[in-house]
């Protein structure tokens, strides 16, 4: 653990303890940081809307905070009646002992940024990062917001690198668009139902349009497929008109009853049906020869 200056330093080092393997990985991962200006990290709810997921770190060290592949890992913290006084003492110790470091102060500053209201506390609690032992989530949010007054994030700490990586992830166009979409349309259940209904109606409109186009082209293709049959029927109708006798009262009915593409034999004129059948064969043969 190293040399300790005070009993607070002993407790502080227990909060910041980390195994050598995690320490070496952290230095490799955050050795080169993005040298951009200071950015304010978004709240946990906004980060979640941008596609960032929260998971509990493997250790309870306050240094075990990492961000990789859209996953922000945070250590478990139990918030009880002694949490406020403990953190205030640690902040005061780091402020008056320059060489001790600012890891606890940086942690409080980081947590204050991602905790703005009750929704943020509830989200972190659901992921097993915060255990609330003081009552309401509102009290937890108020505690972190009050602790971070007059504090800053140490630019040399690993949290500064995490801070910038999270900010750069949220600034990607797709993540910004997703965050705005969820924030605007998917927070209210009625808004979600409205969007689903609009998508459903839009899909029905597309299906109806496609069905109308397919029906139109299918009818056009049917008419183009049988032009010769239509011509044959028109010629056939001239040959099978009703026979008229000089006497007006004697009219023999026609042997053919037409529909779009067929004819029906009437028993009154069997020879006319045979004539129609032979005419059809002759016409098709002529077409084949041509």
From TrEMBL:
InterPro entries: DUF247_pln. The chain crosses the membrane at residues 190-211. The keyword Membrane applies. It comes from the Eukaryota. Keywords: Membrane, Transmembrane, Transmembrane helix. It holds the Pfam family DUF247. The keyword Membrane applies. This is Uncharacterized protein. It comes from Escallonia rubra.
